[in-house]
From TrEMBL:
Originating species: Devosia epidermidihirudinis
Residue ranges of coiled coil: none
Domain Metallo-beta-lactamase per the UniProt entry, residue ranges: 18-216
Domain of life: Bacteria
Entry protein name: Metallo-beta-lactamase domain-containing protein
Molecular function as annotated in GO: 3'-tRNA processing endoribonuclease activity
InterPro entries: Metallo-B-lactamas (IPR001279), RibonucZ/Hydroxyglut_hydro (IPR036866)
Signal peptide: none
Length: 250
């Protein structure tokens, strides 16, 4: 299993970090996790065409995690000389189907015309998909925001989405080979719906994970500072995500 960070940033513009997007490769399959604005361009830069996406997993319905879905659906109806016929599966939190309906009502050209759009809303627990198991847990960032544990090829990847420190998230991350965890701000920043380095590191420590990859950094958040702050709590490998980083999960 391999993950490419397409967007390690937030909703705020940043030169080296665009909004949330992660490309997961499991064998020949490519699965996108979150699709914030800019994700499709970064996907192209990673060598994958928007045409070839068949499955997208969404953590929650905030702009920086979903806005390029509008672009994608429009592109599927507006690519000269090409028609999408393969089904597209959207997997995500409660409310996703109604949200997509609302998007289609607002943006007249994006409703699927030549292919089936299959929307799967998850609740906490495990679901089997072809080639991988997906386990979801609530993250406390919004009422319906989910984190995901992906098990495939004898490896485990956990992606927090946007989160706060909860026992459910620590349990979801148990013994993960890679834990991609949001770390929006440095210590000392007041926040009640995001994580700072100590919170991310406490989750990593409680879950006894191997590698903590901090992501979703706001532009003013310094890589070296948050890595050092996390290292005071968690003794394992810590790195800080940038767009384009590729990590093998095994
Ligand atoms: Zn976010
Ligand atoms: Zn959010």
């Amino acid at each position: 299993m391999q993950v490419t960070v397409l967007g390690a940033g937030t909703v705020l513009p940043a030169a080296n970090r665009s909004s949330s997007g992660y490309l997961l490769r499991i064998g020949q399959d490519e699965i996108l996790f979150d699709i914030g604005p800019g994700t499709l361009s970064r996907l192209l830069a990673a060598g994958v065409s928007y045409r070839d996406l068949n499955r997208i997993v969404i953590t929650h319905l905030h702009v920086d995690h979903i806005l390029d879905l509008v672009t994608l659906l429009q592109a599927y109806n507006a690519t000269p000389g090409w028609e999408r016929t393969a089904p597209l599966q959207l997997i995500g939190c409660q409310g996703l189907a109604a949200f997509v309906d609302q998007l289609c009502a607002v943006f007249g050209g994006i409703g699927p015309k030549t292919y089936a759009l299959d929307i799967v809303e998850l609740v906490p627990g495990q679901t089997q998909f072809p080639g991988f198991t997906l386990e979801a847990a609530l993250t406390g960032h919004t009422d319906n925001s989910l984190a995901y544990r992906i098990t495939a090829e004898d490896a485990v990847l956990v992606y927090s989405g946007d989160a706060i420190e909860t026992p459910e998230l620590a349990d979801l991350a148990r013994k993960a080979d890679l834990f991609i965890c949001e770390c929006s701000f440095p210590e000392g920043t007041p926040t009640d719906n995001h994580l700072t380095p100590h919170g991310a590191a406490r989750l990593a420590k409680a879950a006894d994970i191997s590698h903590l990859l901090l992501t979703h950094l706001y532009p003013a958040t310094d890589d070296a500072i948050v890595a050092a702050e996390a290292a005071t709590v968690f003794a394992g490998t810590i790195s800080v995500a940038r767009d384009g980083v590729v990590v093998e999960v095994n």
